[in-house]
Every structure is written in C-alpha cells, then in structure tokens.
Design a protein that fits this description.
Elements (H helix, E strand, L loop, with lengths): L4 E3 L6 E6 L6 H17 L4 E6 L10 H14 L2 E3 L3 H13 L1 H6 L6 H9 L8 H5 L2 H7 L15 H8 L4 E3 L3 E4 L7 H9 L6 H13 L13 E4 L8 E3 L4 E3 L9 E6 L5 E5 L11
Parallel strand pairs: 1-5, 2-3, 3-4, 6-7, 7-9
Antiparallel strand pairs: 2-10, 5-6, 8-9, 10-11
Length: 284
C-alpha cells in the first residue's frame, strides 16, 4: 500500500531530474531525456533518474507511450511519478466505473485514495469532468473510447499499478516536490496519516486538494531550507520565488511551450521546445 510521501536518495555518482507536466507529449519527453543524458554524460554522471511531478496524461497526443515509458522505467528503477490532478481523474474513473480491472490487478487503495473517493464521489460515476479536461485523448492513444467502458481494459495493468502506486510528494535532502503548491503543515498531516494517526477530515481533505490543485502561493516556506518544486500552472518560463523557496516548472508543453526538467542537486533547469499544442489553430 502506497505512502503519501516517498523519500528520494540523491547518489553522488548520479543525477536526478524532476520533469514538469508532460500531458501526453511523448516526443518532447524523449527529446528532453536524451538531452539530459548527453549533458550528464559530459559531466561524468554515472546514471540519470527521472521523476515526474504528475500530469503524465490528458490533452496531448500520446498518453499511452508516456505512461508506458514511466511504467517500464519504474520497473527498472530509473523513473517514478507522483499524482497530479489529471492522474486523479484517471483514478476516480477507474475506481468508480471499472473496479473489476483494479481488483483483477490486485490494486490496494491507500488512505489518500479513500479520501479522494470521498471528496470527489460524484466524479467516480461520471466521465464528464475527465472528458472536459482532455480525457478523450487518453483513450484514443490506447485505441479505446472514453464513452465505451468495455474498451477500458485496453489500459495495461502495469499502467494502472503505476498510477495507483504513485505517492503525493517526493522528498529529498534539498527539495519537496508536489504537483501543485502546498502550505506549511501539509507535509506533517500527510506524515501523520501515513503513520495511521487520526487527523481532522476537513483539514486533511483541504491539504489533499491543495497538493493537486493549488495555484495560490503559500504565506511562508513549507520547509525552511528546502526548495518546493511544483508544476500544475502553465507558465512562459520557470518561475522562482526565493523568499518562499518555490520553483514552478510547468512551462506549457501541451500548449506549444516547452517541457522543462530541474536537477535536484544543482537546481539547474533543462528544457526542449514543444512541437505540439492542444489549442485550436486560428484561421489565417
């Protein structure tokens, strides 16, 4: 059963990069990883690991290959992912509409899954929100149809296990990584729940929603001395707020911007321009 916080060990001989919101932009993902590997090899790094801060899926052209890439990498120890709000649409829909696929895959629900199911109960039996947020393209990439539940079994078990096994937060000696912005105290609440300690339900639900959807800046650094790396809000470039310790790295790959990654040791960024946009083209 997944814990909400996953600790990341930064090895001296390797580099670990956090990648911003991918949203099915597989070509850009491969281009970014290739660029990073070349740079790391020149710098003498023995290996490279890639972490996603969520939103692997939706809107873009090739969700299947993105998730498959991370599932294979997770099995090999080179890739990992935390939940984004778009993975949450994925989990809610499968848990509510095709629970047989999850029981067949021996998937267990963690405390934050159960809480999300309570918060978004209505969305578990409706695909409307997911469809409005780019879910149709997910099923098209699997050769399936979001409207036809019988085709949902084309999503591989390994993909379901990856997403249902994803934590909410990555934590290293230098950084805290979450999909959206956290506030002071949220990590303590997540840790308490991981340890089975009772927490006020309204309070923990508010922390969960912030972790996946918050765009407002916190009033103070969530952990003094650590950087808080997040995505979720598409920006024209990486934005750093040193006084709050925040670094936002969603640079809008799915909107024709760039796909960006940040080195957890040096906090330097690497990016590739996107060749895709989900926005309708304007008539000349």
């Amino acid at each position: 059963m997944a814990c909400s916080i996953r600790d990341i060990i930064l090895e001296k001989s390797s580099r670990t990069y956090v990648i911003g919101d991918i949203h099915g932009c597989f070509a850009e993902l491969i281009a970014l990883e290739t660029k990073i590997k070349k740079l790391s090899q020149r710098a003498g790094a023995g290996s490279v690991k890639f972490l996603s801060l969520g939103d692997l899926c939706d809107r873009g052209p090739d969700t299947r290959n993105v998730i498959d890439h991370f599932a294979l990498g997770h099995a090999a120890g080179t890739h990992d992912v935390i939940l984004g709000n778009h993975e949450t649409f994925f989990l809610l829909a499968f848990a509510g509409l095709r629970p047989d696929l999850l029981s067949g895959a021996n998937i267990e629900f963690s405390w934050y899954h159960q809480q999300l199911f309570k918060i978004f109960r209505a969305q578990m039996t409706s695909i409307a929100s997911w469809r409005q947020n780019g879910g149709r393209s997910v099923f098209e990439s699997y050769g399936a149809n979001i409207e036809d539940l019988d085709t949902w079994d084309r999503v591989p078990v390994s993909h379901l296990r990856l997403l249902f096994g994803a934590p909410l937060v990555f934590r290293s000696t230098k950084a805290i990584v979450s999909h959206a912005l956290l506030t002071v105290g949220d990590l303590e609440l997540f840790e308490a729940k991981d340890q089975g300690i009772d927490v006020d339900e309204r309070t923990i639900n508010a922390s969960l929603v912030r972790c996946l959807w918050e765009r407002e800046f916190p009033s103070a650094m969530i952990v003094p001395g650590k950087r808080h790396i997040s995505g979720h809000t598409p920006l024209s470039g990486v934005e750093r707020a040193p006084q709050l310790g925040t670094i936002q790295i969603d640079t809008g790959a799915v909107y024709g911007g760039a796909l960006t990654a940040i080195d957890l040791k040096s906090l330097r960024v690497t990016a590739v321009k996107s060749n895709f946009t989900c926005r309708p083209k304007k008539d000349d």
